[in-house]
Amino acid sequence: xxVNLALSPQAIQFDRIDSKxxxxxxxxxxxxxxxxxxxxxxxxxxxxxxxxxxxxxxxGVAIPHxxxxxxxxxxxxxxxLDQPLEFAAADARPVTLVCGLVSPENAGATHLHAxxxxxxxxxxxxxxxMLADAPDAEAVYALLTHQFERDAA
Length: 153
Prior knowledge:
Residues 1-147 form the PTS EIIA type-2 domain. The chain is of the alpha/beta class. The chain has helices spanning 20-35, 39-52, 108-123, 125-133, 137-152; strands at residues 6-15, 56-58, 61-62, 65-68, 75-85, 95-104. The chain contains 5 helices and 6 strands. Strands 1, 2, 3, 4, 5 and 6 form a 6-stranded mixed β-sheet that branches.
């Protein structure tokens, strides 16, 4: 399945953030900077989605996501947190990896396919450990681009 998921090296960051609100703001900023989008619109949309229920996926992963009228294809940002953060995840585990996703407004199935691709990646314990052990954003980018290219094949 070809998700055609955009991932920019500038959309990956290692950071210390001490609140869920701070994570959503940081994801909005990363997405805005990397893909030339409106930070305020993204933050508003991410917060609205989070208000419906936590995007804490489990296994230390959160996948905050939203849609935007200004994006052409699903686009990803990733933050690896220096310290675990409470995120009201389904399994009650704190989060260390945040995968932010923004998709076009009317990209129903495409948005779901992108979420599924991220979900598959983060359900694989070996890949999750590789992301946790990656020394820098460049190594994370290499791991992710290789993975998504393989999934698309």
